[in-house]
Every structure is written in structure tokens, then in C-alpha cells.
Amino acid sequence: MNTSTSLDAPPRDRVTGTQFTRGLGILVLAGMVLLIVLGLFVSPADVNQGESVRIMYAHVPGAWLAYLAFVITGISSAAYLWKRTRSLTWDRIAGASAEVGVLFMGISLITGSLWGRITWGTYWTWDARLTTTAFLFVTYIGYLAVRGLGGTHQQRARRSAVLALLAVLEIPLVHFSVELWNTLHQEASVAGRGTDVEMDGLMLFTLFLGVIVFTLMYVWLVLHRQRSLALEDMLDDSGLDNALTARRAEASGVAR
Amino acid sequence: MDNAGFIVASYIVTFGAVGAYAVGVIRRSRKSSREVPRDQRPWS
């Protein structure tokens, strides 16, 4: 009779997960459900935007997260390039963060386009904010493509870190594009300078809940992705070691 | 609800894309982890 209990069973292999990420994941799922319920059913329609304001609860946090992700990519890249803190972990955090940033920027572009269809009557217009955002999106797709080029891990880290430091300079351009040029896209309406926009308490709560849930989601995704990248790097290294061992064995066989 | 199709589509795109990405990351990690012993993973 098998008397083993969960206490003496081997620990379950969570691969890239830990107790912390498990707890965080549960929190994110609960937050997502709450955000969907509040965003779609509970929060009121806006006086000017009507029901389309509900898209903002996904669009605004998505854009915020993309900015945050790209800034973290820049900081991690600087940490890699600085000799005192040089470690491939920084490079992997930069790569994971950029990947998640591209995902959220894509979400922000699509949700913004759906909102634009309702409000402006078009999915897309070559407006300053939209164009600079699309340019930022393409830049980071390029960054991810550069990470996928061949070479050692150190070569990958160095060239992508330099590119990330250049790419992050686009963020202020995107953010201030609504002030620098005449655009259809409105200026910052909640946390902007001198803003006099009044929002219903529940709408504001839903928006901030979205920002918090998306930020926690970002942390969860980046932790898992950078660990997944670490596993891929370890596999690359062991593959290279095996190939070198095989080559040496082959060479010593020929010499004999 | 007016424009319900656009609104619901934006939520499906958002949470569907994040969910698909998360599943993709976990699947890739599981595949890689088969060849990397647990004691070589600094986080475990």
C-alpha cells in the first residue's frame, strides 16, 4: 500500500516559478477578474466619451506598462554596460522587459485603434502621438531582432545594450508629442500638468486598478521570461561544451 | 451598451494576448528545463 503523503513527495518542479511568483500570479488573476468586472460592467459611462471610456481601462495601463518596460530595458542595459555591475542577468532582464514592453505596446496600439474607430471614426491616422508610438513599437521589434542575431551571450548583450540606450531616448518624444505638435490624441488628462479634468471616483479607481494589475502582471511576466532566457542560455552553453568535447575527442582520435 | 463589439474586442485582445504570451513562456521554459538540472537553476 502506498503510504506516501504530499509531505514526503518530491517537490513539484515549477520550472521558472517560485513561491513568490505563484502568489503574485494568483494576485494578478484576481486583479484581472476585478478589472474586467469593474471596467466592463460596474464603472459608469463617461459624459463625453460614453461607453468607449471602458477601453481606456486596458489602453492607458498598456501604454504605461510599455513605457515602464522600455525604461527598465534601458536601465538594465546601462547596468550591463557598466563594468562594476556587468552580469548577463541584466542583459536577460533587459531582453525580457523589452519583449513584454512590445507586447503591451501592441495591446495599446490595438485598443487605441478600436477606441479611435468609435471616437474619431477611423482606426488609424498619421497623428503625431500615433506615429511616434508606432515608430517606438517598430524600434523595439528591431531591438528583439538584434538580440536574436548570432554570437556569444556577451556579444548579444553588448550590442543590444547599446541599442536599448539609444531606443529609450524615443520615449520622451512619444510622451510629449501631444504637446509638441497639434494632434488628435488628447494630452495627459489624469496626471498631466495643470489638468482640470474631474473624474468619477469609480472610474478613477478602475483606471488605477488597471495600472496596478498591469504592473504586477509585468513583474510576473518578466521574472518568468528572464528565467526562461537563463535556461536557454544554459542549454546553449552546455550544447557548446558538448560540441567542443566531441571535437577534442575526434581530434585526439585522429592524432593517435 | 453602445459599441459593445469594439469594447469587448479590446478586452479580448488585451487579456488574450497576455494569456497567450504567458502560456508561451511557460511552455518554452518547460521544454528547456528538461535538460537543465534543478540544482543549476539559481532561483529554485
Structural notes for this entry:
The complex is a heterodimer of chains A (256) and B (44). Chain A is an all-alpha fold. Chain A contains seven helices and no strands. Chain A has a domain of 167 residues. In chain A, helix 1 packs antiparallel against helix 7, helix 2 crosses helix 5 and helix 3 crosses helix 5. Chain B is an all-alpha fold and 44 residues long. Chain B is 68% helix and 0% strand. At the A-B interface, helix 1, helix 2, helix 3 and helix 7 of A face helix 1 of B.
Quick recap of the structure?
The complex is a heterodimer of chains A (256) and B (44). Chain A has 256 residues and is mainly α.
Spell out the blueprint of helices and strands:
The complex is a heterodimer of chains A (256) and B (44).
Chain A (H helix, E strand, L loop, with lengths): L18 H24 L10 H29 L6 H32 L8 H20 L5 H15 L2 H11 L20 H55 L1
Helix pairs in contact in A: 1-7, 2-3, 2-5, 2-7, 3-4, 3-5, 3-7, 4-5, 4-6
Chain B lengths: L3 H30 L11
**Order of secondary-structure elements of chain A:** HHHHHHH
Average predicted local confidence, pLDDT of chain A:
87
Number of strands of chain A: 0
The percentage helix of chain A is: over 70%
Please estimate the helix content of chain B.
55-70%
Number of helical segments of chain B? 1
Question: Which secondary-structure class do the elements of chain A indicate?
Answer: mainly alpha
- pLDDT below 50 for ≥5 consecutive residues: which ranges of chain B? none
Biggest sheet architecture of chain A: none
- Biggest chain contact: A-B, 40 and 32 residues
